[in-house]
Design a protein that fits this description.
Length: 740
């Protein structure tokens, strides 16, 4: 090791010029500089002191030949404490790992010392592969105890992403596999093999060994699932579809130390910025996931990232750290070797393109394990000590969401995370990110997860603010939109829905979407009551139903569900013209879709699998009668026949004392339209200051309609022209000509 040089500036004397000796500001400036340099000097001396102490400790361990008692050797106590303090506070440099690993695994010292050494081996930057390979060789001679072996495997799994290169480590695959029958080591051996496994590792002899009666523990299922992806012809057993946790947590002894080292060294990332793919700025090194979001270049590739084609062709793979352009992706798309840090895929557009083009199940399987484990361990409201890292967890969830948008599909590990965490969520922490992730829940699992997601979400929805309610409705609208887009894409590319192993048949799709729409209708009805029919809330609700009303024609889905009465009537009687206009447009689209469906039923000779129920047509007709009676014929109180409608007896209406109560909700007297009516009268009858709305009739009624259409009420126009029988077009034109 080379001794670190202290700053040259700290050894130079402070120069004071005569011309500035009486200048107080200059004196303060010089004093400030002097103080800063003093701090730098002290820091440099401290670093040198610890560096010297570490050198002495490493030399001591190099010279250890015989078994040394920890209690009787002050030197061992001193140097062991030095390694522990430096390793756990700031991390160890790469050059010391070879010696310290050799000492810990050679059996020269007691298990207590070996255990403390292994727990202090936290890297400041990277771990040389040669050090790891030489340490693995000590497992062959059985010098260390089984407890030390187990701790070493846990250390290797935890530090796997810090190893600078893994080519020689992959060559030891068979050696690690030989430990799989050790009941104590098996869970961690399977985890390590899972990280190391490539397609060529799925050999028949290894599969044969695994198919022996070892049980179906989660760690074996994980390894078998990866083998089944690579060599399906050799796997005849059936594996469970999903597991909550594949492997035991290996990183507990080192987690706090790794986080402390990263916080201290976050400004000095060990990986060159030139090697960070898909990011413009170096990511934070504070948390576990941030270490996985960059692609580290191996030591064999660091010096030459561009011109290494001969070596790549010889090895028949193309390392992703050399992937810099889309043309390289196209040329090497069938020989890419993905990194062990599957999180780096999320921030690399080229690798996301690869996932879109090549449906490699092994990538999704590794990403599923890594993401599920990370979300479970780092959730800021499920794990108390993670609460201080909320902003970083937000950034991580944002990265996942952007990757899902890029791929146009959700990750199954995110579904499981939402199922587990939503019952514990307060609705505030990472709100935007959680709701965005919810919008990518796959359709196939919605029915299963309804109790895990909808129930806790409804509790939060009813007890939270207006803003939260609107955010949830927007999220559910995007979820519906994503499902319908998924349906359209699959419909264009597949003749039927039996191509997928998941529950994605057309009937499953219809049932899942119907459940979502009914759920939104229920929470919307309750929310409008809680918020006194708030116009802002009503906008988001009607925005959702703008998608629902057009599902048959726009998305070719044989499903139409009318909004509940608790949504329809507040919109019809709203005091806001935007809501009323939006409702008119929605009812126009419902009519267009229902008419098209009816025509298809009559013209197609082949019996259709799905037909709209008579209840749908009945509900639509009831709503149309209410709307026409309200806005046009002024008989809504007499004609509305919906069970939850506004039908009232004349005697009761007279007791209200309202004059012309029959006309109270037509397009002139409606509270949402009175402003338009008053402005129209100002233009049509400028000499009449009384605002006599009864003047709007006959020709003025038609003029008033034209005025409303000119104000941008397109929904009202479409509804009137499609659902109301007016005078003939010739009569309208004649009336206009007379006026002119």
């Amino acid at each position: 090791m080379q001794r670190r040089q202290s700053s040259k500036h700290s050894k130079q004397p402070l120069r004071v010029h005569d011309s500035n000796q009486t200048d107080l500001s200059a004196w303060r400036k010089e004093g400030s500089i002097n103080t800063e340099k003093t701090v730098q000097n002290q820091q440099s001396l401290s670093d040198d002191s610890k560096h010297n102490s570490l050198e002495q400790a490493v030399r001591f361990f190099e010279k250890v030949q015989d078994r040394v008692s920890l209690k009787k050797s002050e030197g061992l106590q001193k140097h062991l404490s030095t390694v522990e303090s430096i390793g756990l506070e700031r991390g160890l440099p790469p050059e010391v790992f070879d010696t310290l690993l050799t000492v810990a695994l050679s059996g020269k010292l007691a298990d207590t010392v070996n255990t403390r050494l292994l727990k202090s081996l936290v890297p400041a930057s990277v771990i040389p592969e040669s050090s790891v390979v030489s340490s693995v060789s000590w497992l062959c001679v059985s010098k260390c105890t089984s407890n030390v072996q187990l701790l070493f495997l846990r250390w290797l799994i935890t530090m796997f992403d810090f190893i600078d290169c893994k080519e020689q480590l992959h060559a030891l695959y068979g050696f690690f596999f030989s430990f799989i029958h050790d009941e104590k080591l098996c869970p961690y051996v399977c985890h390590l093999l899972y990280l190391l496994t490539k397609k060529e590792n799925g050999k028949s002899i290894q599969l044969y060994e695994l198919k022996k009666p070892l049980g179906m523990q989660p760690h074996l299922q994980a390894l078998l699932s990866l083998y089944k992806v690579f060599r399906p012809e050799l796997m005849s057993i059936t594996l469970p579809g999903k597991m909550k946790t594949y492997f035991k947590n290996s990183e507990a002894p080192w987690k706090a130390a790794i986080n402390a080292v990263r916080r201290r060294n976050q400004a000095n990332s060990p990986i060159s910025q030139a090697l960070c793919l898909g990011t413009t700025q170096p990511p934070s090194r504070k948390r576990k996931w941030n270490a996985q979001l960059i692609i580290p270049a191996s030591s064999a590739n660091t010096q030459n990232l561009v011109g290494n084609s001969e070596k790549n062709s010889a090895n028949d793979f193309f390392p992703v750290e050399q992937l810099q352009a889309f043309t390289q992706l196209v040329e090497n798309i069938h020989c890419l070797e993905f990194p062990s840090q599957m999180g780096s895929v999320l921030t690399n557009p080229l690798l996301l393109h690869y996932m879109n083009c090549i449906k490699d199940e092994s990538i999704y399987l590794r990403l599923y394990y890594w993401m599920g484990q990370t979300l479970q361990e780092e959730c800021t409201w499920c794990v108390v000590e993670n609460s201080q890292y909320e902003q970083e967890f937000k950034d991580f969830l944002e990265i996942i969401y952007k990757a899902e948008c890029f791929l146009q599909e959700g990750f199954s590990s995110c579904e499981e995370f939402l199922c587990r965490s939503l019952p514990l969520w307060d609705g505030s922490c990472c709100r935007s990110q959680i709701l965005r992730l919810m919008s990518w829940i796959p359709l196939s699992s919605f029915s299963e997860m309804k109790s895990h997601i909808c129930d806790p979400l409804a509790q939060l929805f009813f007890t939270s603010s207006l803003y939260f309610k609107c955010s949830v409705l927007e999220c559910l609208k995007e979820l519906l939109q994503n499902w319908l887009n998924w349906h359209v894409v699959r419909l264009d590319s597949e003749s039927d829905y039996q191509f997928c192993s998941q529950n994605t048949t057309l009937s499953g799709l219809v049932d899942g979407i119907a459940e979502l729409i009914h759920f939104v209708g229920w929470i919307s009805t309750v929310a409008l009551r809680l918020e006194n029919n708030c116009t802002f809330l009503l906008y988001f609700i009607l925005d959702f139903y703008e998608i629902v009303c057009d599902m048959y024609l726009k998305y070719n889905l044989p499903l139409l569900i009318m909004p509940p009465a608790g949504v329809f009537y507040p919109a019809l009687l709203s005091m806001d013209s935007v809501s009323l206009n939006q409702l008119c447009y929605i009812m126009y689209r419902y009519r267009t879709n229902l008419v098209a469906a009816k025509e298809n039923e009559l013209t197609k000779k082949k019996k259709q699998q799905f037909k709209f129920s008579s209840q749908t047509y009945q509900e639509y007709n009831q709503y149309i009668i209410a709307m026409v009676g309200c806005l046009w014929t002024s008989n809504v109180f007499q004609k509305d026949n919906h069970p939850q409608g506004v039908r009232l007896d004349d005697e009761l209406l007279k007791k209200t004392g309202v004059q012309e109560f029959k006309n109270s909700f037509n397009i002139v007297y409606h509270p949402a339209m009175m402003g338009y009516a008053a402005h129209f009268l100002q233009q049509a009858c400028p000499d009449d200051p009384t605002f006599n709305f009864s003047l709007i009739k006959g020709k003025k009624w038609n003029w008033y309609l034209d005025y409303l259409y000119a104000q941008g009420l397109e929904g009202l126009k479409l509804f009137v022209e499609s659902s109301i029988n007016r005078v003939s077009q010739a009569s309208q034109n004649k009336a206009r000509n007379v006026e002119v």
